[in-house]
């Protein structure tokens, strides 16, 4: 996080801000630890892992005194892998009824 804020501060003195930001973001992406996460939900587990910073979607705002930057993070939520395989309550009820019906027919 410190590297991102330092980069934003350093942009003020740059003439080609977009090129400088691109260079710094590429460097940060190369050294991005595998366990970096954003805790979107307070008190929850590490539910969103950061894969990279999307330089093609970054935006540098133009102001006189500062150089605010909008950064887009490519995130991954491991639990999404399992969401499709978890039946909805109605689907689960239908599944359970069908299973029970099948078992009764076998008897």
Q: Could you walk me through the main structural features you see in this protein, from its secondary elements to its overall organization?
A:
- The protein has 107 residues and is α+β, with helices and mostly antiparallel strands.
- The chain has one domain.
- The chain contains four helices and two strands; from the N terminus they run ααββαα.
- It has a two-stranded antiparallel ribbon.
- Helix 1 (2-10) packs antiparallel against helix 2 (17-30).
- The protein is rod-shaped.
- The relative contact order is 0.13.
- The model has no long low-confidence stretch (mean pLDDT 76).
Helices and strands, in order, run as: HHEEHH
Separation, N- and C-terminal Cα atoms: 63 Å
Biggest pleated-sheet summary: 2 strands, antiparallel
Overall residue-averaged pLDDT value? 76
**What is the total number of structural domains?**
1
> Structural class, from secondary structure content?
alpha+beta
Rg estimate, integer Å? 23 Å
Number of helices: 4
Work out the number of β strands.
2
- Helix % is 40-55%
Q: In percent, how much strand structure appears in the residues? A: 15-25%
Low-confidence parts lasting 5 or more residues at pLDDT below 50?
none
Shape: rod-shaped
For the largest beta sheet, what order do the strands appear in spatially?
1-2
